[in-house]
Write a structure and sequence with these properties.
By secondary structure, the chain is of the alpha+beta class. The chain has helices spanning 3-19, 78-96, 122-132, 137-147, 152-158, 160-170, 173-189, 192-207, 211-218, 225-240, 242-248, and strands at 23-26, 29-31, 35-42, 47-54, 65-71.
Length: 249
């Protein structure tokens, strides 16, 4: 793996590495007395991968398993590497039971806010999707309570992606227009993670392997050129790329 890419990822994890006494074993491998994790680059699949394993009382890791993966098409794209690092950080927090989410006064997990911070981030996207699909509010709370953070790729594909597909099948013009308008706005102003989530997970997952759904969604994008172009470009990838197969299957 490119050293700069590894450094960009580790930079996002530095706080949890230091506060939990992870020892650098070299080549992207870190371990403390309870957990071991490895940062890898699958060049063939063009993915950055986080593998984790529990450590026994003798300091020996069990079998490693993939805990998270991130699309990484450009092997020297440090911005994507940093985004992967943030995703890996959320995953590690969940594995370690670290609760880093907002709670209400009652102690219950609070729903995400549409205007979270100055940037249009994943929390803002999730909040807007929950406005469109309010039936998933309790699922969100249960998910975050279980993992300690929002593992948005897993949550989005299991909820919003599925319901978007059903919405496209039902062909309710008002609902589809509302959703596409919102997703276009978030794609235009959102950060890189938001753009990937909008096109690759919510829409891409909804239309994967279904030409009729793809054409229906596309018909609502005439006034949204940036989203339309990205959506057309992602079609082949979601249907045939190994990375999307790994995510959705």
């Amino acid at each position: 793996m490119n050293e700069q890419v590894l450094s960009a990822i580790v930079g996002q994890l530095q706080g949890i590495i230091e506060s939990n006494n992870f020892e650098n074993k070299g080549e992207g491998l870190y371990q403390n007395d309870k957990l071991s994790f490895a940062i890898k680059h699958n060049q063939e699949a063009k993915m950055l991968v986080l593998e984790v394993a529990e450590v026994d009382e003798n300091g020996v890791p069990s079998e490693y398993s993939i805990a998270s993966s991130w699309l990484f098409e450009e092997s020297e794209n440090l911005r994507d590497a940093e985004s992967a690092g943030m995703d890996f950080l959320d995953t590690l927090k969940g594995k370690m039971g670290i609760r880093g989410v907002r709670t209400a006064r009652s102690g219950e997990v609070a729903l995400p806010e549409k205007n979270s911070g100055n940037s249009k981030n994943i929390e803002a996207l999730c909040a807007k999707l929950l406005s469109v699909f309010p039936q998933f509010k309790e699922d969100y709370k249960a998910h975050v309570s279980k993992y300690g953070t929002l593992l948005y790729i897993d949550f989005f594909k299991e909820t919003f992606s599925l319901k978007t597909g059903e919405m496209l099948d039902a062909k309710n013009k008002k609902q589809i227009k509302k959703l596409i308008d919102m997703l276009s706005d978030m794609y235009n102003v959102g950060d890189h993670a938001v753009q990937n989530a909008v096109v690759g997970i919510v829409l891409g997952g909804a239309v994967r392997g279904n030409e009729e759904r793809f054409e229906t969604a596309l018909s609502y994008m005439e006034g949204h050129p940036y989203l339309k172009n990205a959506f057309i470009n992602i079609k082949t990838k979601v249907n045939s790329d190994k990375r999307f197969k790994a995510i959705f299957e």
